[in-house]
Amino acid sequence: MSGYKGIGGWLLGGVALCGLLAAGPAHADATEDLLRQLKAKGILNQQEYNAILGRKQAEDKVAAQKQEEATAAAVAAAKAEATQGGDSLYVKVKDPSKGIGMQVGPVDIALSGSINAFYVHSGKDDGNQPVALGTVGGTDDTSSVRNGLLPGFLKIDVTTTDDGVTYGGHFGLYPGINSVNWTNGANSAGAPQGLATSGIDFRQVYMTVASDRFGEFKAGRDIGLFGSEAILSDMLLLGVGGTGSNAAPSNTSLGHIGTGYIYTDFQPQITYTTPDFGGFKASLGIFQPLDTVAVLGPNLTGHDSPGFQGKVTYDFDTGDIGGRLFAGGVVQELSASQDKGEPSAAETTAYAVDVGAKLTWGGASLLGYYYNGKGVGTTGLFYGSVAANGEARDSQGFLVQGTYTFGKFMVGASYGASYLDLAHGEASSILVESNTSTALQARYSLRKWATVVGEYIHMDSEAHDGSDASEDIFALGTILFF
């Protein structure tokens, strides 16, 4: 019924417009013809003719102005009838300067996305030795065409505002270009073989309720708080960095994950973020607790309490220098499952904190980041976090980075390291002691959407028993955003 109502409104406006435009021009022409005939027959002299014609033209001007006002009012009334009725629906294209999408009634639908592909060559030392949780493994030189640290993605944001409060539903689909073996979902190990397919990692599905007055509440699956600033500031986010497995690439590479920071991950959460107080914001969330991933130690999969994460940020701009200061933390009980017979002696409280700063001055940007924790493991959250004797392992790491942008070019360099200590009483083994990475990157913006990226990365992994491995990586590719 609403569609007929809207169409009727526009038809009524059209009829009104036609009626208003039909009045006047014929009358105006007839009057002027009559005046000319009276003047030609000598009934009116030139002075009388000019005076009457001038008065008539002035009246026509006033009438035309009234006609224009009436026309605008008729069109406005028709538009209001068609688009603002309580049960009416209207659709319009989103302002291109604000992204891709549309507005359907009071609802905004926005689309954004990215696609990337890289040629990557990895050269490894023939003398490489096994390192458990090392970011370098194997001795084969390999080549691949693959995704970088980002897979592709398509983000859909549906929002509406009512009485100053914005309600949103957000969906993020992250497909890769490489085939996977599907043993662990879309991010399983690569399977570069015929008839295999890539996967879609549905990383984001969450709702938000937000206002400038009270901040934002978020519920669903989205990026975590601890470690998020590190990966989002990593220049390798738009490139490759560590390859993981380059012979059989999965949907993503590593960037500086495991060589500078622990991956924040996308996690189920209920999170509150404060309003902006002069550049200061704080977030606190309740998170789904995660299992430990056993590396020369036990699995702990009992979850009798949630995990907690928090983050504070402060943004500033002095005119010459701008930047962000940030700090975060994570805490979770690592509990044994009695149903699975896991060792209760290994139960512990895992925690970590991170701090960092990103400064910009003209085209220059500097990043410094550091984390320290107990029982959180390395590379991924709770990977190798507990030793076989049930004691938690300490871990720490840092990342330093500098970039400079001039025109369409950006050049950058970074160095990162992650360390995993032996637990108290744990014997030396091939467990990783350190993973380090040195990266050089150059970018060139082809157009507004597309960027060409080239990289060189050198990586080293070293175990507590002295085993080590090294890798040199060359990558060249392109990434597109819209």
Automatic annotation (TrEMBL):
GO cellular component, one term: membrane
Keyword Signal: yes
Molecular-function annotations in GO: porin activity
Domain named Porin: residues: 70-462
Domain of life of the native organism: Bacteria
Keywords: Signal
Family matches, as InterPro entries: Gram_neg_porin_domain (IPR033900), Porin_dom_sf (IPR023614)
Position of the signal peptide: 1-28
Protein name (database record): Porin
Organism field: Zavarzinia aquatilis
